[in-house]
Amino acid sequence: MPLHLTAAEDRMLSGQDGEGVALAMRVVVGQARISGAPRLVEITSAHVDSCLYHGQVSLDFVHRLVDLGAKVRVPTTLNVGSTDLIHPALVRDQELAEAGRELMTAYADLGCAQTFTCAPYQLPNRPALGEHIAWAESNAIVFANSVLGARTDRYGDFLDVCAAITARAPYAGLQTPEARVGTVAFDCRPLGDFLHSELAYPLLGHHIGSVVGAGIPVLEGIPVDVTEDDLKALGAAAASAGGVALFHVVGVTPEAPTSIDGLPVHTVDLKTLQEVRSALSSNTEELDAVSVGTPHASYDECVRLAELVAGPPLQLPFYLSTSRATRDRLGDQLQVLQRAGVTVVVDTCTYVTAILQPTWKRVMTNSGKWAHYAPGNLNVSAVLGSLAECVASARAGRVVLDT
């Protein structure tokens, strides 16, 4: 199917809107042709992952865009970078930190908002049901598609910023309604009261991602009062364990079907999730540190952590990753966290940046995503627990689990 461009899009491609726009449009058009898109779609916002440093090519591309005079045309947020710009001393690899700083600054020069968070859906003015957007970062994509009902495909480095500069994305994949239909069902009703615990959702997400890959799961039996933080944890784990970019929860998410009838069904019970927890956790009582907040902890999660750490002192290093916007909202709770010994990390995340000490080999987390990636990235053994279990363990100086 040939790709149809509007007169405005032809003008961008030909360079009439500047060479920076033309370069970005060539990337978007090239991807559209590869994906078989019949046309491009106008987007209302972008979230850029390319600001995370992956080598010299990261800098070369953005500097080329800046030199050519490119600017983003839609509100554009930035994902985590490779350093904490507010607390630079936390990062042990200063060469990486300097490259990360240069890259993050260059994206700001393009007109991107200096949000530096993997959870842009926690910011104001998030996209609404049916809006076409171009978001990168796997957990942001799955949350936007599933919980908000906005429409974004999975966009990787460079395509994300090119979409922001042109305000266009290929009309393909999850931008189209036919691609957003559920493909496989999960009956979660046997989990019963466990679904009211926060630990259920990273475990369930990891299991679902492992089963469906890039499929679109439909979940039945999730309580209607499930929180956005729970859905965040579910989606992040499903996107890391598999390639899930959209899930539906019957009776909860905006595009969900009313039932799972007609789909192949997987039943999920407690034994299944216990096995997932065992697979994600090392079998040890020894512990070196705790790291929570992947994806970035929400305001509510930070407040709850402040409540949990107010008491007997923590015996282990404890790290909280969150956005600078959430940190700025915390007020007195930030002081509570810091007095308790919690190190607050912004602009980045502990599993992608050299913040934890290399001698720490056993680290506890409340994140299915962190538990999935950190062993390979940091050469650590992970232990997965609830936020309360993480605090209890840090206080005891060893792994403490409720179950």
Characterise the protein shown here.
This protein is an alpha/beta fold. The protein has three domains: 7-178, Aconitase, domain 3; 181-278, no CATH class; 281-396, Aconitase, domain 3. Helices cover 39% and strands 13% of the residues. It has a five-stranded parallel β-sheet, with helices on both faces. The longest helix is centred in the first third of the chain and has 17 residues, at 19-35.
Main β-sheet description: 5 strands, parallel
**Helical proportion, percent range:** 25-40%
Strand composition percent? 5-15%
Annotated CATH homologous superfamily of the largest domain:
Aconitase, domain 3
Number of E-state strands: 14
- Annotation field: number of helices: 14
CATH class (first level) name of the largest domain: Alpha Beta
Give average pLDDT, whole number.
97
Low-confidence stretches: none
Main sheet: strand order? 12-11-10-13-14
Which descriptor suits the 3D outline? globular
Tell me the Rg in angstroms. 21 Å
CATH architecture of the largest domain: 2-Layer Sandwich
Q: What string gives the helices and strands in order? A: HHEEHEHEHHEEHEHEEHEHEHHEEHEH
The SS-based structural class is alpha/beta
How far apart lie the N and C ends? 56 Å
CATH topology of the largest domain: Aconitase, domain 3
Number of domains: 3
Question: Secondary-structure map with pairings?
Answer:
Layout (H helix, E strand, L loop, with lengths): L6 H8 L4 H17 L4 E3 L3 E3 L7 H12 L8 E3 L15 H16 L24 E2 L2 H11 L10 H8 L1 E3 L13 E4 L12 H13 L4 E4 L7 H14 L6 E2 L15 E3 L2 H11 L8 E9 L1 H11 L8 E5 L1 H7 L1 H8 L2 E4 L16 E4 L2 H11 L2 E4 L2 H10 L7
Parallel strand pairs: 2-3, 2-4, 6-7, 6-9, 7-8, 10-11, 10-13, 11-12, 13-14
Antiparallel strand pairs: 1-5
